[in-house]
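Most newcomers find our protein records easier to grasp once they have seen one. Sequence and backbone structure share a record, each on its own labelled line. To make this concrete, we reproduce a full record directly below:
***
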Amino acid sequence: MSDAVPVLRTERLILRGLTADDADAFAAIWAHRGVARYITGKPSSPAESWGRLLRLAGGWALLGYGYWAVVEAESGRLAGMAGLADFQREIDADVAGLPEAGWVFHPEFHGRGYATEAMRAALAWMDDRPEGARSWCLIHPDNAASLKVAAKLGYGQAQEALFDGAATTLLWRARGA
């Protein structure tokens, strides 16, 4: 698999590979309680964020797809990250080998449509790959904002699933949805 991360551009965003230079901004995103609320339940330490950054960046080398750093074109600031991965989650649904879509943005960038814009670019790229025939996303049932983004991206066919012992919402998307 190639470890080269394609650069995608939208009207307002640049999606590029994560780098070590992103570590501080990345850690600031994951340290925010508003970000952690529906994902991990608690803010991440700098060491936990570093491990997450390494995992997300490494997905490209192992899978040929992964997460992009999402940079606001106008300011050049890291707004968040978005993409697809195979986290090998232990979940009570048949998701083995299928890419999982995800997005995380610093609250300063919430409400601007960046998650939808970034993921539309990521999914359009993924739709051209064999692995992109079907994907899924996992969203806490109380995370109304992410559920709204998922719907805009064509994720539907909601099913309840157990993940880490808690009920969550799993949504499906077919290529080109």
In short: Residues 46-63 form the longest helix (18 residues). Helices lie at 23-31, 33-36, 46-63, 114-127, 144-152. The CA atoms of residues 138 and 177 lie 17 Å apart. The radius of gyration is 15 Å.
